[in-house]
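Hey team,

Filing this mostly as a record. A colleague (T.K.) asked me to run one chain through the structure pipeline before their review meeting, and I want the input and output archived in the tracker in case anyone asks later how it was produced. No errors, nothing strange. Just documentation.

Input sequence:
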Amino acid sequence: MENANEVVIANHHVIHQECNLGLDRLTIEIRPEKLEIYVSATSDAFNAYVNRLDEVLSHIHRAFPEVPINESIFDFGVTSLQLLRRIGELVAIGIPIDAVDIFQFFTPLQVSINVAKRSLNTKER
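Output structure:
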């Protein structure tokens, strides 16, 4: 990823809104109807988040290839055992995800947005 005020990840525009807060204060607003994700953060935090989001989303998409990024994982026949196995594989490669993330956020994009933010917050501490 390059330094920019706007990047495109999975056909969604990720747009930077400058603010002087650290990674732990990074705020995200999703506008699915416009395929836009607004991230309020410093430039460095925005760039770190965009890189991590791209990485996490690509791993989650590989783990759930049958699921479009804006559709519920549960609508595509993923069984409980498959879900647990795939989550285990993601954790094994360093993606801090658990079943609660899937049940709380449903779609690969929503899961990725939240896991990427959480993983940056964890790295910062």
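Quick notes for T.K.: The longest strand covers residues 12-18. The helical segments are 43-63, 80-92, 99-105, 108-124.
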